[in-house]
Design brief:
The structure holds two protein chains of two kinds. Helix content of chain A is 30%, strand content 20%. In chain A, the strands form four sheets. In chain A, strands 7-8-9-10-11-12-13-14 form an eight-stranded mixed β-sheet. A three-stranded antiparallel β-sheet of chain A has the order 1-6-5, with no helix packed on it. In chain A, strands 2-3-4 form a three-stranded antiparallel β-sheet, with no helix packed on it. By secondary structure, chain A is α/β, with parallel strands linked by helices. Residues 1-41 of chain A have low confidence and may be disordered. Chain A contains ten helices and 17 strands. By secondary structure, chain B is of the alpha/beta class. Chain B has a seven-stranded mixed β-sheet, sandwiched between helices. In chain B, strands 1-2-3-4 form a four-stranded antiparallel β-sheet. Classes of the chains: A alpha/beta, B alpha/beta. Chains A and B meet through helix 1, helix 2, strand 7, helix 3 and helix 10 of A and strand 3, strand 4, helix 14, helix 16 and helix 17 of B. The structure holds iron/sulfur cluster (SF4).
């Protein structure tokens, strides 16, 4: 199976070459080749944005995320990806991804969502927060004219996913909320071709845009960065409350939801914080929501903090478990038992993982093969 | 006056060097701040001299010395703690612009006092017409002494803080003796108390160093905190993790298996049978432990710094290790031995420092290549993430590394990922299929946790490799000592961390059109000064400018060359600055005392000859002779510029002593400021060292020509 996956990657590479030679999907392939070679930057988009209102005295208020940026003519919102052009709000990144990859779904991480499948993953420049530890700061903290973008319409993304045989499309790396319109249209077009869409987000999005988006999505992974408001203020430059509200909204909508908390040494790694976080999730979202604790690696502004020690992650794991969370995972610790899924009832090994690989898949449909318990997720 | 002058030189240069070293160390170890800190220092000294020189200001030297002596240790501590003021959490990186402001603010008080002291001492000797030059001269001697003392003491014997306290005590005792003359009955007890205080300071300083690091890295246990001749280091522990902090930057962490595997294992995927492995860089934090699990691997480690196992409170793993305490460049250049390595791991660290970027040059790589077995691999892991996208600035960095390796080796391979990794060899080692890589890794006696199929299938996917190859193909630039593009691009890359830095960096370093304005302005200044008066006295102002420009430019160039060849400037900076200051004052004094005609032409010729000689020889200096070479070059440059300064004074003021006394100084200051910042930070990576030296020669030649025309 391992070899097959790799060979399919190679096969896709060969297919891309053949496609170029034979003129199949020329615009897509050319765009991709430009992206790989970091060719000349493309023009910014001028697609009209959604969810904004004109202010009585002139100017615009954006309603996509809780920042509600109010911008006058030729000004941009905080995320740098939306601009008021003559009191028409325009998204500058529609059809302009700056990153495109094929990733294992476990890398997002989604552990209860079609394990072992791949996702065509994309991002545009910009973000509506500014986390000091951002792993993707080079694009998230850039304006779209500062990144090398590819011209890729929603339909071209879908075509590419079909061509590469990736059953999922992931909106990830930076914050997909800021390329809402693009994500929405890809997800909508993707569903028509049987492709699933997953959103990897900080959850800092307004209620209404999220409500309209959810029917086109299949799963959401939220980075719940901390359960402390002051952490959101000082480290994230955002707010906790709207994120918690959206998590509840997502859960009650029925969409598949997983949560990740990046454990940053000295900043959010106390026992009390792990406990409060687990309690909140259990009380408000349920004990069966997968909760991942992932390892911090020195990045962006926190280049001078060491990686999260394994013992700290294990502490988080133990506390979340003791609080009653049923599916707690630790990221980036290959071979660690907390990478795998066990039945919360009989403790049978259901899905064994090592790195991004599924090494054992024992689930029968959605059920534990031993005690027949139903395991939440999409399998 | 002589004693006070000596003391002034000792204090002023000592304080300048200690603060410079502390700034470089506390603000993430980049040499960029040397230029800005020197610039700040010059401005502060000039302002102090101006303030002290005003007729209505009368400050006693003894009071100023006292203030300076007390300020120095306090400023060292303030510098070390300054990251706390400008960051909101432990471990946050400091933007360049903030660091530059800190460096100017920190050097300001002592710089002001130094300048003020110069004029305060002079005021006490108003009657003596030659007092300025004499004071300048003895100050230079004091500066030389300070340089030598600091180089010998700091890191090797005492910590920076202990040396600062010692200097403060020397100045306090010295000023009492200097102002009242030596009286044994009074002074022997004073000296005894001072010596006792030095001993107490030496004993207490390490504890204070540790306490300061305890404040800085709160919530960590500080195991030890110490200065070495290369840097300030601290070892911290939290949650069973040992962290080595070097110059306020995390250098290594144990345990950190992901990094350790990435630093050692990837070349084994091509050559699993490798035995002799040479590692350049620190290995106590994970690499030795990992190598101990690989049967038959023999490790040779080259690092000029001491081993830290005892400080880490960790016993060294059971593996055959040969330790070479030497600079990596010196080690590979010496070559010679019959021993050949199957793998050479070069861990250059941060390219923001010349310390790292000098290991990715044709010179280093060629020498390292001689140490490889015929099918050996040179492996270079970097900190650049190419897993999900590659930005324009990152692409240039990666391309420079790739091209430099390509210029030396026949085969170069790259792995994308969170750490982009480069492999180079002269054998056709790399064209093997993915399955063979995985199978080679599985042959190891240690089963890799991260460098295995579970991660590599994603990391080495065609998508990512194609993108990376596309990126490195975008530029043909090669990193070299002559043109250190890596440091330049790393500066641009890091500048993205702050909006202000990003704007300044793209304006100064990326929009290069303004570079042509520099020679045009210099030429305009030349024309303006020679056309101002018929007797061409104003041309003296241009000479002032040239004196400032050439002294600082050549000093910074010498620092750069020394650093890229010797590996570290931290220890020797003091003696280099000390002898330079001495040369400056000696040149000015001698020229002032001898009424030689055409001193300006002589000085300019001497400067040109020194520059020419340097350009012709700097690359061929044997490592053992490096310090001597620079200890000869710098005073020569300083002698000539000091002499030029005196000649400019004569030309500009001789017939009209009533002219604005500040004008000459101001022109010299502008020249110095340009020399401190532009050549090594802006022009070196753009036009290269050779053309930089040629430009210097052109400026000196035009100055000589005009001197001759305006005789
Ligand atoms: S999406 Fe962007 S423009 Fe809209 S409110 Fe959020 S940050 Fe502001």
């Amino acid at each position: 199976m391992k070899r097959r996956t790799f060979m399919s990657c190679l096969g896709c590479g060969a297919a891309a070459t053949v496609a170029t030679q034979t003129g199949l999907f020329p615009p897509v392939i050319n765009s991709l080749q430009n992206a790989f070679a970091l060719g000349e930057p493309s023009e910014l988009s001028s697609m009209e944005a959604r969810h904004y209102k004109k202010l009585p005295g002139g100017g615009i208020e954006c309603g996509i995320c809780p920042r509600h940026c109010q911008v006058t003519d030729l000004e941009r919102g905080y995320c740098g990806s939306r601009e008021n052009q003559g009191d028409i709000y325009r998204t500058l990144v529609y059809g302009k991804p700056c990153s495109l990859n094929i990733d294992p779904i476990e890398k997002k991480p989604f552990f209860h969502f079609y394990p072992g499948t791949q996702a065509l993953s994309l991002a545009t420049a910009g973000c509506n927060v500014n986390c000091k530890f951002c792993q993707n700061w080079e694009i998230s903290q850039s304006r779209p004219e500062q990144t090398e973008n590819i011209d890729l319409s929603p339909q071209a993304v879908v075509d590419l996913a079909v061509q590469r045989k990736t059953p999922n499309i992931a909106y990830t790396y930076s914050e997909p909320t800021i390329f809402y319109e693009y994500m929405y249209d890809i997800a909508e077009a993707g569903h028509k071709h049987g492709l699933r869409s997953v959103m990897v987000t900080g959850g800092y999005i307004e209620q209404e845009p999220l409500r309209l988006l959810i029917p086109h999505l299949d799963a959401i992974k939220v980075d719940l960065k901390s359960i402390r408001e002051d952490y959101y203020k000082t480290i994230v430059n955002g707010e906790l409350k709207p994120v918690l509200d959206r998590l509840v909204q997502m859960k009650s909508s029925g969409i598949w939801l997983e949560i990740v908390t990046l454990v940053v040494p000295t900043l959010n790694d106390t026992d009390a914080e792990f406990r409060d976080l687990a309690r909140w999730v259990k009380t408000n979202l349920g004990a069966d929501v997968p909760l991942h604790f992932s390892q911090f690696y020195p990045q962006y502004l926190l280049k001078n903090l060491p990686p999260t020690p394994q013992v700290t992650l294990e502490k988080a794991y133990a506390i979340a478990h003791s609080e009653g969370m049923q599916y707690v995972y630790l990221g980036n610790l290959p071979g660690h038992p907390a990478e795998s899924t066990h039945c919360p009832k009989c403790n049978a090994m259901l899905i064994e993982r090592n790195g991004y690989r599924i090494t054992q898949m024992n689930l029968v449909g959605n059920h534990c093969p031993k005690c027949q318990s139903e395991i939440p997720g999409r399998f | 006056m002589n004693r006070q002058g000596l003391l002034l030189g000792f204090f002023s240069t000592g304080a300048q060097v200690l603060l410079l070293r502390e700034l470089v160390s506390s603000l993430n170890g980049s040499e960029l701040f040397i230029g800005t800190a020197l610039f700040g220092w010059l401005i502060a000294v000039a302002t102090g001299a101006y303030l002290g020189g005003r007729a209505n200001v009368n400050a006693k030297p003894i009071a100023l010395f006292g203030m300076g002596a007390l300020l120095l240790p306090a400023l060292i501590i303030a510098t070390r703690l300054s990251p706390l003021l400008v960051t909101s959490v432990v471990g946050e990186i400091i933007p360049f612009s903030t660091a530059a402001i800190i460096s100017i603010v920190v050097t300001l008080p002592v710089g002001l006092l130094s300048g003020w002291l110069f004029t305060a001492i002079l005021k006490d000797h108003r009657a003596d017409a030659g007092s300025i030059m004499r004071l300048y001269f003895v100050e230079g001697i004091g500066a030389g002494v300070a340089g030598i003392v600091i180089t010998l003491l700091v890191g090797a014997v005492l910590s920076t803080l202990a040396v600062a306290v010692t200097m403060a005590l020397v100045v306090l005792v010295g000023i009492v003796v200097a102002s009242k003359g030596w009286r044994p009955a009074r002074d022997v007890p004073i000296v005894t108390v001072a010596l006792t205080a030095v001993v107490v300071a030496a004993i207490l300083a390490p504890r204070v160093d540790k306490a300061i690091d305890g404040i800085k890295y709160e919530s960590y246990q500080v195991v030890s905190s110490f200065d070495t001749p290369y840097s300030h280091q601290a070892i911290l522990i939290r949650d069973s993790t040992v962290v080595l902090v070097t110059d306020n930057t995390i250098e290594a962490v144990e345990p950190d298996l992901l990094t350790a595997e990435n630093l050692l294992l990837p070349p084994f995927a091509y050559t699993p049978q490798a035995k002799a492995v040479l590692v350049i860089g620190r290995t106590e934090f994970g690499i030795e432990q990992l190598a101990g699990k690989l049967a038959n691997v023999e490790l040779t480690i080259v690092d000029p710094r001491g081993v830290l196992f005892s400080e880490m409170d960790v016993s060294s793993p059971d593996i055959k290790v040969t330790r070479v305490t030497d600079d990596p460049l010196a080690f590979v250049l010496r070559g010679g031995s019959e021993h050949r390595y199957d793998i050479i791991v070069v861990n250059p660290g941060d390219f923001g420092s010349f310390r790292g970027s000098r290991l990715v040059t044709e010179r280093f790589l060629n020498a390292a290549r001689q140490l490889l077995s015929p099918d050996g691999i040179l492996y270079l892991p970097t900190q650049y993430d190419s897993d999900r996208y590659i930005t324009n600035r990152e692409a240039k960095l990666l391309a420079a590394i790739y091209n430099t390796l390509r210029s030396t080796f026949q085969q170069v391979e790259i792995w994308p990922g969170n750490m982009t990794e480069f492999f180079a060899s002269d054998a056709a080692t790399f064209g093997i299929p993915y399955d063979s890589l995985i199978s080679n890794l599985s042959k190891l006696t240690y089963l890799p946790q991260y460098i295995n199929d579970n991660y590599l299938f994603d990391r080495l996917s065609d998508f990512k490799k194609t993108r990376l190859l596309g990126s490195v193909g975008r530029s043909s630039e090669i990193n070299s000592q002559n043109r250190p593009v890596l440091t330049h691009y790393q500066t641009l890359y890091r500048a993205k961390l702050s909006n202000l830095d990003d704007r300044i960096a793209s304006l100064v370093l990326e929009k290069r059109w303004w570079y042509v304005a520099v020679p045009i302005l210099i030429f305009a200044l030349l024309v303006a000064t020679i056309s101002r008066d018929r007797r061409r006295r104003s041309y003296g102002l241009f000479l002032y400018f040239v004196a400032g420009l050439s002294s600082l430019s050549l000093e910074m160039i010498s620092f750069y060359v020394y650093q890229t060849q010797a590996g570290s400037l931290y220890s020797e900076m003091a003696v280099l600055i000390g002898v330079f200051m001495f040369g400056l004052s000696a040149g000015a004094y001698v020229t002032y005392r001898t009424t030689a005609k055409h001193a300006d032409v002589c000085a300019l010729l001497m400067l040109s000859a020194a520059t020419l000689f340097f350009a012709a020889t700097y690359q061929i200096v044997p490592t053992a002779m490096l310090l001597t070479y620079h200890l000869l070059f710098l005073p020569t440059v300083a002698l000539a510029t000091g002499s030029l300064f005196a000649a400019a004074t004569r030309r500009y003021y001789e017939l009209n002593p009533g002219r604005n006394r500040g004008a000459g100084y101001a022109f010299e200051l502008v020249g110095s400021a340009v020399g401190a910042i532009l050549p090594t930070i802006v022009f070196l990576p753009t036009i290269g060292l050779t053309w930089l030296l040629v430009s210097m020669l052109l400026i000196l030649s035009s100055a000589i020509a005009e001197c001759l025309l305006t005789l």
